[in-house]
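Progress report, Aim 2. The chain analyzed during this reporting quarter is listed below.
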Amino acid sequence: MGVQRAQVRGRFFRRNRTLIRPWYERNAARLTADRASLAECYPDLAFHIDDSTGAVTLQGDIIIIPAECKISTAIATLAKFPWDYPGSEPEAYDANSRFRPWPGKTLPDRHITEQGRCAFGCLRAARGTRLTR
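Predicted structure tokens for the chain:
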């Protein structure tokens, strides 16, 4: 005879599923604070919310001014926010694939995947510290 399992009931098994609202609706203060911080440090970046899917992205240019030459360079950036932000870090991308591998190296050597995902310093923002230049 087969082994019979007891029925499991508890907080993980809900009969009626409730709709979980997007993070920006659950924590409107977080979205407001992030917008203010970005406007101060990176005025060319803007949040975009897709009402039909609930997806949140951050798009725009980050202006870099190297100390050596003082000539500004705009880097097109796209950040995709996970549904559980700030619990998980946003994914940042080089939107126009501007960065290339160094001679004899690969993109991962520059901390960029072949799909353009890159290190963006989002971990600090996701953990609640202030964004800085």
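Strands lie at 45-49, 56-64, 73-81, 91-94, 117-118. Helices lie at 23-26, 28-41, 122-126. These observations will guide the mutagenesis work planned for the next reporting period.
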